[in-house]
């Protein structure tokens, strides 16, 4: 298990002084990579050899979001590798030791030149994992809702990450900029995300979204499906 403490500053929170959804998932992304490096599968084995870690799915249940000036502890551990899929699990704890966020993800490796999945064993990539019991499932389907709104978005330079595509955490900014629940200050309780295809700088992304009383569906495509999100807020 990898563990890291963080004191939330103004750069992590929104106007309600709660951790931004994109910042929360960015933290999960950072500890994932740091733990992978500690396990001996850092950039020398991956990035420097043209291999990129990418996220395929994420799922989170949020008891409450961390708040400004709060010290939190984030923990992560890998599950058992399934051929080309690397499950990973997360917990965020308050300073009092209360679990306030539980999450799961599945990662895979991509060839930076071919932009296609690779078999980790062919490159000597191995991550020992364990199932501790009670992990949040990662294979949770995103059930579409009626998407009544549409907009074409061109990916700017500032949204592109080290992998050369729209960073997975930015999808949450795109979503919450377009649904009323976030700007109304309603509490986010659950997130399910599927990432199907990368989106590069300047590429036009067709966004579609809609929702009901507590659930919102946001999807994007570039002729082919790229991502789907389902976000559940407190009514």
List keywords for this structure.
single chain, mainly beta, Thiol Ester Dehydrase, Chain A, 11-stranded antiparallel sheet, 3 helices, 11 strands, globular
Individual helix count: 3
Radius of gyration: 17 Å
- Shape descriptor reads globular
Could you describe the largest sheet, including whether it forms a barrel? 11 strands, antiparallel
Describe the secondary-structure layout.
Layout: E1 2-7, H1 21-38, E2 51-62, E3 71-78, E4 86-93, E5 99-111, E6 116-117, E7 149-154, H2 170-176, H3 180-183, E8 188-195, E9 204-211, E10 215-221, E11 225-233
Antiparallel strand pairs: 1-3, 2-5, 2-8, 3-4, 4-5, 5-6, 7-9, 8-11, 9-10, 10-11
What does this structure look like?
Strands 1, 2, 3, 4, 5, 6, 7, 8, 9, 10 and 11 form an 11-stranded antiparallel beta sheet that branches. This protein folds into 2 domains: 2-123, Thiol Ester Dehydrase, Chain A; 149-233, Thiol Ester Dehydrase, Chain A (Roll), CATH 3.10.129. A hairpin with a 7-residue loop joins β3 (71-78) and β4 (86-93). With 235 residues, it is mainly β. Helix content is 12%, strand content 37%. The mean pLDDT is 95. It is built from 3 helices and 11 strands.
């Amino acid at each position: 298990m990898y563990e890291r403490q963080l004191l939330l500053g103004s750069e992590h929170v929104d106007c309600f002084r709660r951790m931004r959804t994109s910042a929360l998932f960015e933290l999960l992304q950072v500890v994932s990579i740091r733990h992978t490096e500690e396990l001996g599968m850092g950039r020398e084995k991956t990035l420097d050899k043209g291999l990129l870690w990418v996220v395929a799915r994420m799922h989170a249940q949020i008891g409450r979001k961390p708040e400004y000036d709060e010290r939190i502890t984030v923990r992560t551990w890998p599950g058992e590798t399934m051929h080309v899929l690397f499950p990973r699990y997360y917990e965020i704890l308050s300073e009092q030791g209360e679990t306030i966020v539980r999450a799961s993800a599945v990662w895979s490796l991509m060839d930076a030149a071919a932009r296609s999945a690779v078999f980790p064993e062919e490159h000597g990539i191995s991550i020992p994992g364990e199932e501790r019991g009670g992990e949040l499932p990662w294979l949770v389907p995103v059930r579409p809702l009626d998407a009544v709104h549409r907009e074409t978005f061109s990916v700017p330079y500032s949204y592109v990450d080290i992998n050369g595509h729209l960073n997975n955490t930015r999808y949450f900014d795109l979503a919450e900029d377009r649904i009323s629940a976030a700007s109304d200050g309603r509490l986010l309780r659950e997130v399910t995300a599927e990432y199907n295809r990368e989106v590069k700088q300047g590429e036009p992304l067709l966004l579609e979204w809609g929702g009901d009383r507590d659930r919102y569906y946001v999807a994007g495509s570039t002729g082919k499906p790229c991502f789907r999100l389902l976000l559940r807020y407190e009514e």
